[in-house]
Amino acid sequence: MRARAGFCLLALAGCQGAEDPYVPQRDLSALQNAYEHPNATLTVEQVQSLLADVSVQLAALALSDRLTFLTKAIDQAKTGFEDKGLRAAKGLGLQGRVDVTVNCPGAAANVDFVNQPPDPANGTLLLRIPISNSQLGPGADGSATACRFAGTQADLAPWLSSRRAPGSSGVMLDGPIAIDFGGAVTLGEPVSWQPLFAVGGELSVDGLPPVTNFDFRLPASGRGEMRVERPSLGTVVVYVEGLSVGVRERRGVWRCEGVNLLCAPQF
Asked: Which of 41, 94, 96, 236 has the smallest number of Cβ neighbours within 10 A?
């Protein structure tokens, strides 16, 4: 997506006719409900065991805070339509599919989506977003091709330092992605993005084993959430926000601190 005008031409070329509406391959509404309503009830021993089981995924989520560039890419798709006058077309019943190709930023710390130059070494991200009655979503498909971007530059939390995780890690996303916006997004109206991503491929963070086939949500800037399900326990949501780690279960939140992430209930 070298320029906004170029993006819009691509997007329009990707729209299908109204007689052939686009439906994303996966419906993530049940996953959204699992994030909103975790149903497990845990003991302190079960919380500690669960965190130990998902330590690699948790570290990857904490070190890849620039996954928020995915949110910015979705927002740019919306902005591109609005800038080309499609805000005025809300009443035309525009339907089909929007195809958006994003050039991934590599090591660049500040991503300029409008002028991001293509670099084969950094890979690309393809988004396929349904549009119906001039609303985007509520779900979308994506596909990352060796998409590289910078990792966190922030100070490491004590529990990450203890795992010898690097403080400035590169991140690569590769393979299919399913996305849920949490609701349809109307062109021309403001939106607070809280996207949910189901990664069917692989997320790699320098210094850590790759993570495959997992989902995460970005409910706010600087916060990442990951669903963990155990057949014998139910579902919980583990979150990372700055130096903090917590676990949401049916009754409330466990807050976990220190090198060993010792957890205590806050309910």
From this structure: 41
Residue ranges making up the domain that contains 126 = 4-265
Q: Cα–Cα distances in Å, from 47 out to 126, 234, 264, 267?
A: 37, 12, 9, 14
Give CA–CA dist 167/159, Å, rounded: 12
Is 227 in contact with 28 (CB distance < 8 Å)?
no
- Least Cα distance to 175 among 213, 138, 226 occurs for 213
Higher pLDDT, 94 or 69: 69
* List of E strands, 153-242: 170-180, 185-186, 196-205, 211-220, 223-230, 234-241
Which pTM does this prediction carry? 0.81
Percent of the chain with pLDDT over 90: 29
Residue 244, classed as helix, strand or coil, is strand
Strand ranges (E), 118-195: 124-132, 135-136, 139-150, 170-180, 185-186
* Longest CA span, the chain: 57
- The single residue listed with the structure tokens 């710390």 is 109
Q: 222: which 2 tokens?
A: 């600087």
Rounded CA separation 176/198 (Å) = 9
